[in-house]
Amino acid sequence: MYSFILGVISLILGYVFYSKVIIKNFGVEPDRETPATALEDGTDFVPMEKQRNWLIQLLNIAGTGPIFGPIMGALYGPVAFVWIVLGSIFAGAVHDYYMGMISLRNNGAHLPELASKYLGKGMRHIVNLFAALLLLLVGTVFVTSPASLLQELTPGFMNYTFWVVIIFIYYILSTILPIDKVIGRIYPFFGALLIFTTVAVGIMLFAKGHAGNIPELSMQSFRNIHPQSTPLIPGLFFTISCGALSGFHATQTPIISRTIENEEEGRWVFYGAMITEGIIAMLWAAAAMALFDGQTLSEIINSGTASAAVSQITLTLLGTVGGTIGVLGVIILPITSGDTAFRSLRMIIAEYIGLLQDKLSNRFMITVPIFAISIALMFIDFNILWRYFTWANQVTAVTALFMSTAYLFYKEKNYLFTFIPGSFMLYLVILYLLTEPIGFNLAMTMSYYISAVLTVGIIYVFFQQVNKVKAELNTDSVLINDHLQIRDIFPESVR
Description:
By secondary structure, the chain is mainly alpha-helical. The chain has one domain (2-380): Amino acid/polyamine transporter I. Helices cover 73% and strands 0% of the residues. The chain contains 18 helices and no strands. Helix 15 runs parallel beside helix 17 (444-471).
């Protein structure tokens, strides 16, 4: 119990203190006009107040990841707390903040465009492919998981297929309509339900005396106690992603970088939302550990994915009525990430092919094929989709962190804030690919060494590239003058 409480306090202190270091290193310009006001178009570039931006950002990034992931991560025991806390403070929140602010400085550009600009033009095509794959998988998975939960709460005629159709209709509307017309209006209600569920689970965990069952962190916690003996490294870092570090967030932050009215709001909106997600992850991991032993939890998950564990946790802690409301709160998370996943994909494709999105017909041209592919993916097993999603997700996080490193390197800022977590996760994504059945399925011991060699090689190539680019920069380069007014550096963008 004390390890859990200390972890939550650490997350809060991380926001209070470490975020200030990160923000000072970036160099906020509070008087600089943001894309929301300079490029306002009534669809994607729409000024919105700070609290609404924070809430939308939180719901965008908090899919089933900070609930399903920590519940499955609880199979590793209290060592999961370590990754959630350290990952959120030093990796996830840093990733989200720099990605959001660099996007803001580049007119709300998405990761493929930013990777092309800061890592080299060839990266644009590669990152576009990964981003499209990731968002398609996320959007599809976030149709299946809420539909599965909803069919358990509703009458027989409202079955799985019924809810899939309803969710898809909502996703289409939220993808094509202006952000303030659908997402901006209904998210406050969704947010209230999410906050109620999270707070209620946390309170009842203590009120009913279950908190005493939360295991304490010790040296023994770092042994692998997973019931299926799934390796702690790299397993834990891919099981818990959205609650610690997630590349999916890199696809979501540009949505909000187009609605922020002042750069100073970035600390609360980007760094703060990730810390909040970390607290949500801590609560669900703690609840899973407190209510079930590892073997029982494993059997529940295997019987119906992590959604089965969610149902049992909420019913146990909140009772029948409260549990039903609690499950609805959990359902909100994937839905409010699925909608913006498809919206992000539309915007990324539009940027890639150079198609303006001010006309509804143009938005339909991209939206229809996206949903046709997503419907086709519905016929693939959820567990297969999830395994590919986890790897593509962390590859995207590595890309965003190295893009941020390049950005800071060119501007002669301290790039270690992003380089260290980026290099750590680079090693893990290579190790995962080498050892997992979806990859090369090699022996773990040998893969440790191969991954280290490949990581060093990639880092060497990275610094060769950024040093070459930096040597060619001059004092007028946009790469180092993004702090100037949009009208001065991107006059062609201002209408």
